DNA sequence: CTGAAAGCGCTTACAG
DNA sequence: CTGAAAGCGCTTACAG
């Protein structure tokens, strides 16, 4: 049996009006509290609504008012914990106003992003929050020009027709490096994400800031990974260890080779005493690779992440990291689209250092 | 400047019709390919659409056709990797048909779930997929009766007005236990989720199936955790270790106390040789706690998870686990709502064992 | 093959 | 304070 055939036709304003003995305009007025309605009439209408189980049809309303109670959210990857924690914050804010969150993943593909944004616009969303694939904001500008408010998420301010919100990555990265330098580290590796992503560039700048500000002589090496993932972090550290003769090359099956036993005295000079990872997922992979090689955290190598996703506190060595105010970032992004009048705004939130157990003074 | 004031008014069918010199009905016909339209006329209309950058307004369309190109998805927790990987599968299927996914988290609260479902229904969604909070499906039935197709996700078949899709948890759990018994394990701990969740009960039944089928004498202990999280898994193993005298109690700050050194001979008899965790997150926490105590995986204790979330392969010891066809589960759930005619269907998919490095023959 | 008209469910000036 | 009517953008019988 086809589902569509089931079920009683739901009640409409017209049905409510008839039952209450008033006009549909009056029903609408009590629904919206727009004009003063007589006490007695209001009660009759409310009783009718109750009796019929009437739920206002959002489509009809949207057609009239021009906007559907929905906000579109376009993210790069649905399975990225940082985005999802931010999405949870947006959801919280949107629910307050009875809005719905339309969520779609672009898989970092600009074409998919364009499709998604246009679909949202065609559906009369109240606004769109987009974590942009790259710096080409053409389609975002296009829908903004069509009157759809957009907020750029985790992205810097763009020319005046769109809002933006992000954490200060540069300052956060500087904090991480200053923390390490403060502990006494002088040989530091920065495992960065791909350079074409804005976050990578900002965090690298912050690393240099931190070093400059410390006034210390720091030996810094930077490795650019292909993505912000655990797999890349693991492979990156593995390459480093192979280079130092501390591990055999990765098996072709992608499963790492068991570590050789290792004594502390055996750690070569080239090995950094601290690794700063551009996000927690990279740090997670790095931790695995270090552990495979029998290198202890933080005794042999200190590790710092970025984001403070939920998992960070649960890792086998709880991770010291730069915490983004992730939930708040999401909440504010949604709020920018809901509080009237909707204007172009730019917000930068401050990250904070969260000390856990993966950092300590360097060995030796 | 308020954003709402910006931008040119977007083109409507009327504008296209005027430019092409035809009626709006004809424009609609070429848009929907419903009736044969003259070749020359079609070209004129298409040119006009192109020139005006016309995008069909989904709200007007929805009001007329009765359904908005959107599917509502209600999950228990937006930051749960299993749900998000499933949501990615739904998103993939929905995008194919230009549908949008409205995603909302109920935080396992029945009241929130009711609100979410009613909101979706009021928005004229094509259908709803819901991962139900508990066994009270009253509101799901309510919207089904109002004509909104619903599919129960990760939930068993309900009485005939709703579709359902899930993996066979019971069979999966049996596989896990049979794998361990096959390796020679006879003392097994099952770290289960809360008993009020259907998954926990099914997986426990599967554990018993596996033991019964093996014909071996197995010493099984079962510990029920408060939730399917890493934190709970970690705490559960920690309690076990404290009970065996292998670890100091957890510090009040929630940070575990450093492990005491431990020799293999020192492992007490009461310690299970294998732990089966009701999901990968629990296994992740268990791994951390074991590592803290200096217990090796798999040499001292074997560990099996459930779900095969992305992280499973990246853990410090890559996790042997029962893989749910998560993406497919999501894809099929969405497909059930999109392929016409929409009928009530029930699907059960089979999980599979994925062997990685966290299981081996027992010590001794 | 094409057009004119009705209508989906709601909100909002406009009269009264 | 309340009602009648117009109209948001589209689709679809119904005529021609």
From TrEMBL, chains A, B:
The keyword Repressor does not apply. Pfam families: LacI, Peripla_BP_3. PROSITE patterns: HTH_LACI_1 (PS00356), HTH_LACI_2 (PS50932). InterPro entries: HTH_LacI (IPR000843), LacI/GalR-like_sensor (IPR046335), Lambda_DNA-bd_dom_sf (IPR010982), Peripla_BP_I (IPR028082). Residues 11-65 form the HTH lacI-type domain. Keywords: DNA-binding, Transcription, Transcription regulation. GO terms for molecular function: DNA-binding transcription factor activity; transcription cis-regulatory region binding. SMART domains: HTH_LACI (SM00354). This is LacI family transcriptional regulator. It comes from Acidipropionibacterium acidipropionici.
């Amino acid at each position: 049996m086809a589902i569509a055939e089931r079920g009683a036709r739901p009640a409409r304003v017209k049905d409510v009006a008839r039952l209450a003995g008033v006009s549909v305009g009056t029903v609408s007025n009590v629904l919206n509290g727009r004009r003063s309605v007589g006490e007695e009439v209001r009660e009759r209408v409310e009783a009718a609504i109750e009796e019929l189980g009437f739920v206002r049809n959002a489509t009809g309303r949207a057609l009239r008012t021009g906007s559907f109670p929905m906000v579109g959210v376009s993210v790069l990857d649905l399975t990225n914990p940082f985005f999802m924690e931010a999405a949870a914050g947006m959801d919280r804010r949107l629910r307050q106003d009875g809005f719905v969150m339309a969520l779609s993943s672009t898989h970092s593909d600009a074409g998919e992003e364009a499709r998604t944004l246009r679909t949202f616009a065609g559906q009369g969303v109240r606004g769109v929050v987009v974590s942009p694939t790259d710096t080409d904001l053409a389609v975002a500008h296009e829908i903004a020009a069509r009157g759809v408010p957009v907020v750029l998420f985790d992205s810097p301010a763009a020319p005046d027709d769109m809002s933006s919100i992000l954490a200060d990555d540069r300052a956060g990265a500087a904090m991480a490096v200053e923390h390490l330098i403060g502990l006494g580290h002088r040989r530091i590796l920065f495992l960065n994400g791909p350079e074409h992503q804005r976050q990578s560039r900002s965090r690298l700048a912050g690393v240099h800031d931190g070093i400059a500000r410390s006034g210390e002589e720091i030996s810094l090496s930077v490795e650019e990974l292909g993505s912000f993932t655990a797999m890349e972090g693991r492979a990156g550290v593995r390459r480093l260890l192979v280079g130092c003769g501390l591990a055999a090359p990765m098996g072709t099956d992608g499963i790492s080779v068991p570590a050789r036993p290792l004594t502390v005295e055996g750690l070569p000079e080239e090995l950094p005493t601290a690794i700063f990872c551009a996000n927690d997922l990279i740090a997670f992979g790095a931790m695995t690779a270090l552990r495979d090689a029998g290198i202890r955290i933080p005794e042999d190598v200190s590790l710092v992440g970025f984001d403070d996703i939920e998992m960070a506190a649960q890792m086998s060595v709880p991770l010291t990291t730069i915490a983004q105010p992730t939930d708040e970032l999401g909440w504010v992004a949604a709020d920018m689209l809901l509080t009237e009048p909707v204007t172009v705004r730019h917000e930068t939130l401050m990250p904070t250092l969260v000390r856990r157990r993966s950092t300590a003074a360097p060995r030796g």
